[in-house]
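Input for the complex:
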Amino acid sequence: MLKLNYIKNILKVSGILLILLQLSCVKYKKRENIVVASAGKIESLDPAQANTIRTLQILSALGDTLYKIDKEGNLSPSLAKDLPKVSNNGLSIDIRLKENITFHDGSIFNAEAMAFSLNRFREIGTLNYLLNEKVEDIEVKDEFTIRIKLKKPSSSLKSLLTSVNLTPVSPNSYSNYKGSFNNKNFIGTGPYFLESFNPSQQVIKPFKNYWGEKPLNKGIDFINYSNSSTLFGAIKTKEVDVLISNSIDDMQRLTLNNMVNKDQLKSGEGDPIEIGYITFKSNKPPLKNKSIRQALSYTIDRELMSQQVSFGTREPLRSIVPPQLHKKEFSPWPKYNPDIARSLLKKEGYCEKDILSIPLTFRSNVPADKLLALTWKDQIKRDLSDCIEISINGIESTTVYKQLSEGAFDAVILDWTGAYPDPEAYLTPLLSCSEIKNNSCLKGESVYSGSFWGDNKVQELLEKSEELEGENRLKNLIQVEQLAAQGSAYLPIWLVNPKAWSLTDISQPEFSRDGLIILKNLKRD
Amino acid sequence: MSSKKELFKYIFSRLTLLPIMLWIISSLVFILLRIAPGDPVDAILGTRATEIARENLRIKLGLDKPLINQYIEYLNQLIHGNLGISLNTEEPVKIIISKALPASLELAIFSIIIASLVGYLIGFLGAIKPEGKIDFWGRIFGIGTYALPPFWAAMLIQIIFAVLLGWLPIGGRLPPGAIPPPSITGFLILDSILDKNIEIIFSSIKHLILPSFTLGILLSGIFSRSLRLNLEEVLKKDYIEAAKSRGINDSRILVKHALPNTLLPILTITGLTVSSLIGGALLIEITFSWPGIALGLQEAINQRDYPVVQGIVVIISSLVVMISLGIDIAIAYIDPRVSY
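Predicted:
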């Protein structure tokens, strides 16, 4: 009896405590700031160090770039006054800057500041090779004009100048950080300034003296959760206002999309910037044989993969450049056709006696990769079990990246996001090669991508494209992609669109052409 | 007197072994990290960086030096209490640990309290009435919670209590936008009490409930089973029978004679669980986005941030060794039969 009373008392006290906790803050107060959630921590806010979408996202609100890509896909000035002026020999570019722009610390934005930022990036930027490969020197021509001297003509440099990594920082505030990263602070010219920073939560507020269109909200709280389920739960429970799609599992994407269809959420989608593909190692048998690689390019049913892996949220892709960057539909890789695949393999002596064995590697920490590997394996078993056998093997991503250039994988599932919205940002990293022997790449990007595929004509066209502009350049790059499709060292699978979901009292998220949400346009309705 | 002397001798010998153990552990971590494919340069630059860029970063991070030089430098720094600087964030490892460790300790302490309350209560009630209803369901509870996969249980609890019922927050240590109190101890609840911030006190408790409850319930199975088995065994001993025959009432026998003799294994299990929780609650920390040391360790391993991994492992190892030493001392103090 006495024991029962004890238990009853304990339950009563626990009940009271729970009620108190519920009363304390069960309903989330009407927030002033908009809470935007994404996956993973932000370790550094230095544009010279930034290499994740979430970091670029916050930097895009804190800083400005010289140029932006407009809705039609053309270069448009942002901090620059007008379009860049290229010299006749193509080796020098003059950029005039807007005047009367101040940094968050009150100092003036001018050519000195821009040159300081670009040179700082060239010096310490983790992706500085993007600039250093093209740029010889950066000079201050006058107070509001900079001159970029190039090593050789480069038409892709203009697109590179839209990269958030090249956003200017205040020389006053970064004088102690010329040679090192300023991880926890950011002083730029953007529509917001940084109010507080820690790796799991960052608060930004509108910058009163911003030169451009002012933000439509009173500030943004960025929060970073460590997994997809928590992010999904956070928007369902209205703990956050906006959810960014990076690292949201496909199943949860589908549920969120269904909620949008029922008017329980709003959503916005940007142009696809991430491609998913399979790389074939083309310098060792059996995939050294071009016909076998070509046969494999007929074996994948992309529609089935998209449905099985992502419930159709990933768009099937038959090119290695997102279509919008070519400004027209262009799909040089062949459609799924097991009959053609079989006849090609028969010519190479498979299907009757021998079965082609392909070890396929996937990144074990990327759920979609594993599902793709399993689905493709089963699809091959269904359609071509007499010709091909796929064995799958999961390896953690850092190990995969390290071993790619060592030629460790016959076939490996990867993804790629261009550093800036231009076909060159997809083609060069996959296809460029500086030393080619018998269609094998010995030195260059193609080695780092794990394909080891080299083609002199492709290299020649890639180099020539740097001297071309406009339509001629695009035609040239389309030719590159056609040759890549014939080489079949890569097998494009799908496109991934950046997406965001917002609560119904928040405006629909809008995206810029580089796949980042335009945070200043978010507002409470 | 002589037993005290023995005890001090034992403590001294264990403390002398501590640096040796730490040296072995830190050397193993140092070697294993370098054997593992991928290095910080890959994690920071990705695969597309040029060889020049990679080499420059390698020099900057000191990874170009011969391995033996790196090892000697690392040990030298460690001896001087310097855990190094994160390759990724350039922040001192000491600071990274000082931010994450209190979060893990807070979670571990509350989980152990919940596990002890629930587990020992069930185990105790089961042992005093063997084969009764409570004992039956307690055994099912014990085996069930022990067998549950932690990530699955955590996600289920999160979905029910945070998403469907909306009673408790989904993750993190504070609500979005909340400004944490000034860090004095690093323990959020304690700091908010010291700051007299009522709203943050309640918010931080609310955020702690789901992860600590999940972890506590998962651990309570081991606690209930161990108490039940030990108590049952003790209750069959001759001296208990003798006490009963002397007419001493049941509750006095239980509290004065039986329970103290079950304390030793219980203390050992509780202590070892605390030490294993400090670095071992990874799945719970990931599920609830709890910014603890296990989550930090996982991120550092993914980024091949050598100094952070090494620093965290050394600190966790030290804590485990210190706690197990503390348990040994407590056992020796409680039970005079224990000799060393």
